[in-house]
């Protein structure tokens, strides 16, 4: 019996492992198969927006499978427990088809499971699916991997991109085996976890990913290069949560925007660059497995980071007194998603203004982001902290005020997430601490009562950060 193991590829179209299994089913008239999903207890033991969103997608995927006549079986527990159960109930298991992960903890998990199942006589069939190019495909002439994005992208851009894989799994539903693996308790665990979340998303089906892609291509792509940094507009693709959960593949996205790419449209080129960053950070993570825990630049591995519990809570809750930072954090906490410009602003503030260890921020984003990527997120945080590849130079410190004026000039974004400032005019919206005491009541914003004053001076904090980095 052959098993199709779904993971972060929750879709019934353009799925490499599914495509490869279907070829076998077509060639072998006696072959039978089942679909499984591993409910990892380590993830279900942590309640956060990231996991809540993912498991709500899993539940939606289960419904999609059932509507297509496909039975999705759950196995539950840690790696050894779950796959021991699979072997126990499916002793005739011969092959496992799955789309592999290349980097860090996920790759280690794959190795552990593969070693265990191979030891039981099961043949593993891993496939590349999540990225355009895996970590070994984009290389320098001497065979070394790139450490800087721009030359990487130039080479990446010249390589032929894989096309979508046609999948018709529903046509093989009559060849499914019926398993006796207990399901009621596992489904109850999943449902209980989902019900504990304070946030419930609606657009979590495969069809929603394609709807969003169609909308992006028709309404946003043409001006993406100019609009993507504007915080007040819906000028980004917002496809990242769908990519994260595998509701849509990067191949399908590329295939649908191919004509715009071929015509050299600037919006398409700009978006293609963003997709290339995923491949780049995946490659970096494979070659530097400590990306989440250790600075890429060795000289900064002994940085003396600061920590203050009160400031940590202010940053997390969006109460630093810098409106653009606070709006970004409040959007993150309420929606589980954050505009990339907002991510950079919030990260820069935590690391450069508060001088907090970037790992704290990276882990908080891990919990909150519904599109969290275990390679891109630490890569981005190391960029902001000036410790990683292609990092912003240490002497370039984002000014919250300047970022706010540039990317939210009218304060529209700020007022959307900070209602305390809704009556503050543009004159003060980027620096509310400058509101004269006689005007605070008029603007319905009493400082340190309705909205906090900053506890640091950005200019002084900037100079402090530069001197500390310079002295390392």
UniProtKB/TrEMBL annotation:
Pfam family, one: FAD_binding_7
Cofactor binding, note field: Binds 1 FAD per subunit.
PROSITE patterns cross-referenced by the UniProt entry: DNA_PHOTOLYASES_1_1, PHR_CRY_ALPHA_BETA
Swiss-Prot/TrEMBL cofactor(s): FAD
Transmembrane segments: none
Site description Electron transfer via tryptophanyl radical, residues in chain: 305, 358, 381
UniProt domain Photolyase/cryptochrome alpha/beta: residue ranges: 1-132
InterPro entries: Crypto/Photolyase_FAD-like_sf, Crypto/Photolyase_N_sf, Cryptochr/Photolyase_FAD-bd, Cryptochrome/DNA_photolyase_1, DNA_photolyase_1_CS_C, DNA_photolyase_N, Rossmann-like_a/b/a_fold
UniProt keyword Hydrolase, yes or no: no
Keyword terms, alphabetized: Chromophore, FAD, Flavoprotein, Lyase
BP GO terms, sorted: nucleobase-containing compound metabolic process; response to light stimulus; response to stress
Domain of life: Bacteria
Gene3D superfamilies hit by this protein: 1.25.40.80, DNA Cyclobutane Dipyrimidine Photolyase, subunit A, domain 3 (1.10.579.10), HUPs (3.40.50.620)
Gene Ontology molecular function, alphabetical: deoxyribodipyrimidine photo-lyase activity; DNA binding; FAD binding
Annotated positions binding FAD: 224, 236-240, 271, 274-281, 371-373
Similarity-based family: Belongs to the DNA photolyase family.
Protein name as annotated: Deoxyribodipyrimidine photo-lyase
């Amino acid at each position: 019996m052959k098993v199709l193991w779904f993971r972060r590829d929750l879709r019934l179209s353009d799925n490499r492992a599914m495509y490869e299994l279907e070829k076998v089913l077509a060639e072998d008239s006696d072959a039978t198969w089942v679909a499984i999903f591993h409910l990892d207890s380590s993830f279900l033991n942590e309640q956060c927006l990231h996991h809540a969103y993912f498991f709500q997608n899993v539940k939606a995927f289960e419904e999609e499978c059932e509507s297509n006549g496909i039975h999705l079986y759950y196995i539950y527990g840690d790696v050894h427990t779950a796959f021991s159960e699979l072997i126990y109930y499916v002793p005739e298991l011969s092959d496992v088809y799955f789309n592999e992960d290349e980097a860090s903890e996920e790759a280690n998990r794959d190795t552990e499971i593969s070693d265990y199942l191979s030891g039981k006589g099961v043949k593993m069939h891993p496939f590349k699916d999540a990225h355009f190019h895996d970590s070994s495909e984009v290389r320098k002439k001497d065979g070394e991997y790139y450490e800087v994005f721009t030359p990487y992208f130039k080479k990446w851009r010249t390589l032929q991109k894989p096309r979508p894989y046609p999948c018709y799994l529903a046509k093989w539903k009559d060849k499914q085996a019926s398993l006796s693996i207990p399901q009621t308790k596992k489904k109850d665990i999943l449902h209980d976890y989902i019900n504990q979340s304070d946030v419930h998303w609606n657009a979590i089906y495969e069809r929603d990913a394609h709807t969003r892609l169609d909308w992006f291509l028709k309404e946003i792509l043409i001006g993406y290069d100019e609009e993507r940094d504007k915080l007040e507009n819906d000028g980004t693709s917002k496809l990242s949560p769908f990519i994260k959960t595998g509701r849509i593949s990067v191949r399908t996205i590329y295939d649908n925007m191919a004509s715009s790419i071929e015509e050299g449209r600037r919006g398409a080129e700009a978006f293609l660059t963003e997709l290339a960053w995923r491949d780049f950070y995946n490659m970096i993570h494979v070659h530097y497995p400590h990306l989440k825990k250790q600075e890429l630049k060795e000289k900064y591995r002994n940085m003396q980071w600061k920590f203050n519990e009160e400031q940590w809570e202010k940053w997390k809750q969006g109460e630093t007194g810098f409106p653009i930072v606070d709006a970004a954090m409040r959007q993150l906490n309420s929606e589980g998603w954050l505009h990339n410009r907002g991510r950079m602003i919030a990260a820069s503030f935590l690391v450069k203004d508060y001088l907090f260890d970037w790992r704290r921020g990276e882990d908080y984003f891990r919990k909150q982001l519904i599109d969290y990527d275990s390679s891109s997120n630490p890569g981005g945080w190391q960029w902001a902290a000036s410790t990683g590849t292609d990092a912003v130079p240490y002497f370039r410190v984002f000014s919250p005020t300047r970022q706010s004026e540039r990317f939210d000039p009218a304060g529209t974004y700020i007022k959307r997430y900070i209602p305390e400032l809704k009556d503050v005019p543009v004159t003060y919206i980027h620096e509310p601490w400058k509101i004269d005491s006689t005007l605070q009541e008029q603007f319905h914003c009493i400082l340190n009562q309705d909205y906090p004053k900053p506890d640091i001076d950005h200019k002084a904090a900037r100079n402090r950060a530069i001197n500390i980095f310079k002295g390392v």
